[in-house]
TrEMBL record, chains A, B:
Residues 12-110 form the HTH hxlR-type domain. The keyword Transcription applies. Keywords: DNA-binding, Transcription, Transcription regulation. Gene3D superfamilies: Winged helix-like DNA-binding domain superfamily/Winged helix DNA-binding domain. The keyword DNA-binding applies. It holds the Pfam family HxlR. InterPro entries: HTH_HxlR, WH-like_DNA-bd_sf, WH_DNA-bd_sf. It comes from the Bacteria. It comes from Niastella caeni. One of its GO terms (molecular function) is DNA binding. This is Helix-turn-helix transcriptional regulator.
DNA sequence: CAGAATCCACCAGGATACTG
DNA sequence: CAGTATCCTGGTGGATTCTG
């Protein structure tokens, strides 16, 4: 009577994805790592807003959720590198879609969200930082 | 020297999108409305987890962010209908991507998130509800 | 450079009850 | 059916400090 026997849920997936991406910096972290910005110090430089502690916490969550892998080099000074897992990599297109939508509607969104002082500063500085990185990466 | 003069930020868009989608039920709400489940009572029936108050709050935010429009019919009993705006509609593909990714990796994600008792019940009941809706909508 | 331990403030979101 | 007012708490994420 209806096309699919198991009426694939409409919302479950949404909730699961939300769960994985739940955390102020998670999408950005995944995105950064996907760009080979894989060392904590690099990430901290990239995202002026995030704290060491929060960075660790959220990376840890991404790790336990199987989105990223952590490689620790027992050196001095210590060195740590994160990389996307298979499934983590499969999330990038989604994050990319989010990013592109936000970019495409930036002016409108900035206006509309203007009242909300939350992200204003943060996101702007991040923009600059990222722009910088882009240049560096393109040139280097 | 580098391909684009204005090195389109990588993260701004992400933050803006996060801002709009920030709220436990926002993606689901947009999704529901996109499916013509537009009346508050319908939505409440659909999402067993959400409260009247929270529903109102988040719908209000979506409204002030320009994602949805609210139409009030001054009747008795009162009748209210929400609809997506142009830009709100443009967000659906993104939400759809989130949803599909979650669905595609459901078994893995459920396992991995299992420790986290947060959503367990909620998302399951939502699945059922939604499945139901699908059937109803396909048949009706 | 990486990261663990505390401490804390804030707010999102849930429960409840009441009005039109 | 829709909406509002209170109240309350759990968790997120920020600041700080200290180790290897």
């Amino acid at each position: 009577m209806y096309e699919r026997k198991t009426p694939l849920s409409i919302d479950c997936g949404l909730h699961l994805t939300r769960e994985v991406l739940n955390g102020k910096w998670k999408p950005a972290l995944l995105y950064a790592i996907s760009m080979d910005i894989k060392r904590p110090s690099e990430i901290l430089r990239l995202l002026p807003g995030v704290t060491r502690r929060v960075l660790n916490v959220q990376l840890k969550e991404l790790e336990t959720h199987g989105m990223v892998e952590k490689k620790t080099y027992p050196q001095l000074p210590p060195k740590v590198e994160y990389s996307l897992t298979e499934i983590g990599r499969s999330l990038i297109p989604v994050i990319d879609a989010m990013n592109q939508w936000g970019d495409a509607n930036r002016s409108f969104l900035e206006t509309v969200i203007a009242q909300d002082p939350k992200i204003g500063e943060t996101s702007k500085s991040i923009c600059l930082k990222y722009g910088h990185m882009l240049v560096e990466r393109k040139i280097g």
